[in-house]
Amino acid sequence: MELDRISNLPRDLAEKILSLLPIRDAVRTSVLSTKWRYKSAMLPHLVFDAPQQTFADVVDHVLLSHIGPLYKFKIVKKYIYFRDMDRWILHMSRNVLHQRVHTRTTGKSL
Length: 110
Known about the structure:
This protein has four helices and three strands, in the order ααβαβαβ. It is α/β, with parallel strands linked by helices and about 110 residues long. The chain has two domains: about 1-40; about 45-110, no CATH class. Strands 1-2-3 form a three-stranded parallel β-sheet, with no helix packed on it. Helix 3 (about 55-65) runs parallel beside helix 4 (about 80-95). The longest helix is centred in the last third of the chain and has 13 residues, at about 80-95. It is elongated. Pfam families: F-box. It comes from Rosa chinensis (China rose). This is Putative F-box domain-containing protein.
């Protein structure tokens, strides 16, 4: 039987690896082992940069399942609906945000 090396990585290293992945891939790591099931939910830096149509649903899901401190919340999107941004800011105001929120639009906010 092979040794499960990925599950035995130091916590800081595992978080660093996950933080370098696109959010979708970071969430997918939850199936690697039981030790990794909630690691993506504890990421302290959330960067969303995706063109998909269900973008707001993905952000909602990640925020609702997030555990622990949040040091960065960044969205890079052409258009952001004010109602979505309001909901995300409200959620973060109820769950301690330690540092900063970034939004960058390449188009007009709706």
